[in-house]
């Protein structure tokens, strides 16, 4: 079947969500006063005005990563490293086979997947505004103009990276919205990737290095980092190695290997702890961050903080959840207790829950669980287990209960389970990464803080991955070991290890280093696509193909291999089972998106109902 062709003149630059917004606005809003200072023709005429538009788009990174039920959490929930831990209701998507479908409760606040369709198109709209108007705006220097254009290209490419690895083929929007449209068509992800590669190549030539721009702005290294991932998608492994090497050896960015910053004189802490202190993330001496989201206490627009402790911490303090061995209510989340667990660990609700693979399995190498690794270190509180906490309910002290102040136990001597919801309320976590002081909340959730979006540690792991695809085992091991050495890990990988574990070794180290940072689901989908497009045999002995990507893929096999929920028939206390299928490598396009698009066809992904209406996707063949 011959695919339709989309050229750069095709008027495909709108999004369903924008139409809904436009159609729901009042007449007064749609009829601005003729001489309004805020009209686009009065504002978007120079560098300052267009920079403000891009800054608005960049600010949405904080929304993506740092809000309650942050959208990026779906990348953890639907992967091998974590699951949805909200077990007090059936609204979250856990039973994916029955809940994740085109007419599922997609707008549900407890899913956040729609953000990667609706809200990301809003961000693309801002990028397109800058790109479309930039030639008519005034700039003092041509270099400033090209730097801003390159930054807009980067952010648009970042958003399409997420959209295509979440949904596959999607409408390609490359120009500023000028009128409501209802004639979208899906465009092949491959042709979108080619366009984004070209844009990023321009960005690399014109966006300044990090030491030349304020924190929070796009950097040259961020452009190279993202482009390296795009190159991997097309099997351009040498090109990815070249780009990542330029970042690693360029002299602008360095891994933090020595103590620094606000807590550097606390002797029992370490460099991993230092990296994630609020005061340290954007220090001039901390050059590990390639791209940062900026959020400071008292900053305009800051209303929620990072929510890191709320999103990823256990819900341990509510009455009746954790009992003492003699059956009393063991815990309290009331501030001011003698044992202030809530002040130290926050009021978690487990929007996500790490799998056993993340909590324990990934830390066992050569038969030994590595507590020497700073990222898994319990002796200084970097890593926290439930057994490190104590029964703190003041009522226990009043009753002279012998268990008051003693360490938690999961079972009593008779084997009775003492926690009524292990999924939501009993797991270990990387406290060093989640702990963000919350000055305005007696029950901390994770206060304001800058956030790493891209950092150099991942750059090393991207290069390691490229070496794995090329079967350069020793070079891959060396790149992974750079990260492990910084973390004081006991065991260093050998070339033989990499030949045996292959991409699994890279994914393991990404989990250790980037848990609660990386877009894990998208990375698994990207790796699955590479396996299918190159026919490189996986370490599991299988060879995958593109024609069956939604039926037989590495994404699903990896979750079944290392997970412990989707593959074991686990059921929540409200009766919701964890289920998943190969088709979930791509999310369903919501029916409201498809049905509202009356003048065109947005395709549904394979495995979901509605595919009978699909038409061949467009192929972008523009500039």
Question: What does this protein structure show overall?
Answer:
By secondary structure, the chain is mainly α. Among the domains are: 1-70 and 112-207 and 589-623, Serine Threonine Protein Phosphatase 5, Tetratricopeptide repeat; 308-434, no CATH class. 39% of the residues lie in helices and 4% in strands. It contains 25 helices and 10 strands. It has helices spanning 16-24, 27-30, 40-43, 47-66, 74-77, 96-99, 118-133, 142-167, 189-206, 220-233, 237-249, 271-275, 308-312, 341-345, 356-359, 394-398, 422-425, 431-434, 456-469, 473-486, 495-501, 503-514, 520-534, 554-562, 591-596; strands spanning 5-6, 82-84, 289-293, 352-354, 364-365, 368-369, 383-384, 429-430, 451-455, 619-620. Strand 5 (364-365) and strand 6 (368-369) form a beta hairpin. Helix 4 runs antiparallel to helix 7, helix 8 (142-167) runs antiparallel to helix 9 (189-206) and helix 20 (473-486) packs across helix 21. The radius of gyration is 25 Å and the shape is globular.
């Amino acid at each position: 079947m011959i695919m339709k062709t989309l050229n750069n003149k095709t008027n495909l630059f709108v999004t369903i969500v924008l139409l809904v917004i436009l159609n729901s606005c009042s007449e007064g809003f749609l009829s601005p006063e003729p001489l309004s200072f805020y009209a686009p023709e009065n504002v978007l005429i120079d560098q300052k005005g267009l920079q403000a538009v891009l800054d608005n788009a960049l600010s949405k990174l904080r929304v993506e990563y740092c809000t309650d039920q942050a959208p990026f959490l779906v990348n953890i929930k639907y992967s091998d490293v974590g699951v949805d831990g909200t077990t007090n209701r059936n609204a979250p998507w856990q039973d994916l086979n029955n809940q994740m479908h085109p007419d599922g409760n997609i707008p549900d606040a407890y899913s956040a997947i729609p953000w990667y369709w609706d809200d990301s198109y809003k961000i693309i709209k801002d990028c397109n505004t800058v790109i479309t108007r930039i030639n008519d705006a005034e700039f003092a220097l041509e270099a400033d103009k090209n730097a801003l254009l390159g930054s807009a290209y980067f952010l648009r490419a970042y958003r399409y990276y997420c959209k295509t690895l979440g949904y596959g083929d999607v409408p390609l929007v490359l120009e500023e919205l000028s009128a409501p449209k209802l004639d979208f068509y899906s465009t092949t992800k491959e042709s979108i990737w080619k366009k984004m590669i070209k844009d990023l190549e321009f960005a690399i030539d014109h966006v300044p290095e990090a030491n030349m721009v304020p924190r929070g702005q796009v950097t040259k290294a961020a452009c190279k980092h993202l482009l390296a991932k795009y190159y991997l998608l097309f099997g351009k492994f040498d090109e990815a190695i070249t780009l990542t090497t330029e970042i690693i050896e360029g002299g602008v960015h360095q891994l933090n290997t020595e103590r620094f910053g606000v807590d550097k004189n606390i002797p029992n802490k370490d460099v991993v702890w230092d990296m994630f202190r609020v005061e340290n993330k954007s220090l001039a001496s901390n050059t590990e961050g390639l791209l940062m989201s900026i959020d400071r206490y008292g900053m305009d627009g800051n209303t929620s903080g990072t929510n890191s402790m709320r999103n990823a911490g256990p819900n341990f303090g509510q009455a009746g959840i954790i009992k003492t061995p003699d059956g009393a209510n063991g815990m309290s989340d009331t501030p001011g207790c003698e044992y202030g667990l809530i002040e130290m660990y926050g009021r978690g609700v487990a929007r996500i829950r790490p799998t056993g693979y993340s909590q324990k399995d990934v830390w066992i190498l050569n038969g030994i669980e590595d507590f020497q690794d700073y990222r898994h270190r319990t002796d200084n509180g970097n890593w926290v287990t439930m057994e490190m906490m104590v029964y703190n309910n003041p009522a226990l002290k009043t009753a002279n209960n012998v268990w008051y102040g003693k360490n938690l136990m999961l079972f009593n001597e008779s084997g009775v389970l003492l926690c009524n919801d292990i999924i939501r309320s009993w797991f270990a976590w990387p406290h060093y990464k989640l702990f963000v002081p919350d000055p305005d909340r007696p029950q901390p959730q994770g206060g304001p803080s800058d956030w790493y979006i891209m950092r150099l540690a991942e750059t090393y792991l991207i290069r390691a991955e490229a070496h794995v695809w090329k079967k350069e085992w020793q070079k891959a091991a060396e790149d992974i070991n750079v990260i492990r050495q910084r973390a004081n890990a006991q065991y260093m990988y050998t070339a033989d290890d990499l030949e045996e574990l292959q991409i699994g070794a890279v994914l393991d180290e990404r989990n250790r280093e980037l848990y609660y940072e990386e877009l894990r689901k998208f990375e698994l989908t990207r790796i699955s696509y590479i396996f299918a497009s190159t026919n490189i045999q996986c370490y599991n002995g299988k060879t995958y193909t593109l024609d069956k990507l939604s039926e037989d893929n590495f994404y699903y096999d990896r979750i079944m291999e290392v997970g412990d929920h989707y593959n074991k028939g686990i059921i929540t206390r409200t009766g919701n089972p964890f289920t998943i299928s190969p088709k979930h490598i791509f999310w369903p396009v919501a029916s409201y998106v498809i049905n509202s698009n009356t003048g065109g066809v947005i395709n549904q992904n394979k495995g979901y109902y509605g595919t009978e209406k699909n038409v061949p996707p467009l192929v972008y063949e523009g500039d």
